[in-house]
């Protein structure tokens, strides 16, 4: 397990954006890609947990003192933050971000998956982060703004936001990824 991007380059980009273009990079989202529960089990769960927490610590420390204020520690990893066996690990990951001064949480793959996250993970998250990719249109031709607005309505994201806000009134909800399904047609 390793960090793909050069963190020094990323730090330089964060500083450059702020100093030269008044662009504030506010969030780090840690993506854990191409690794499944099966791979982790074969590798060794305890070793995985140790290495992952060390990676989070390295990333977190690199951006202390910059414009980065949010750090999501697990992205679309329901097999981790939805299960009892990884509950303590999920909380430890959140704690690493918090101990380095970040507001933190996990990112769910859509609003319906948000409801599966362990309550302890949500309660220990500072913010709620959700990735959403609604259908903009199924017409495949001449998609209009009205089609896109209707697509968002049919996806019920606004209703989910209102429901979650009632459940967690003190937590900010952030759309952490957004796009559209069938984007090559839309």
Short structural summary:
Helix content is 47%, strand content 16%.
Description:
Strands 1-2-3-4-5 form a 5-stranded parallel β-sheet. Helix 3 runs parallel beside helix 5 (87-99). The chain is built from 9 helices and 5 strands. The protein has helices spanning 7-21, 37-43, 45-62, 78-81, 87-99, 111-114, 119-123, 145-155, 157-167, and strands at 27-29, 70-75, 103-109, 127-132, 172-178. The longest helix has 18 residues, at 45-62. With 186 residues, it is of the alpha/beta class. Helix content is 47%, strand content 16%.
Task: Tell me the distance between the termini.
Answer: 36 Å
Mean pLDDT: 92
* Major sheet characteristics: 5 strands, parallel
Share of residues in helices: 40-55%
Which radius of gyration do the C-alpha atoms yield?
Answer: 18 Å
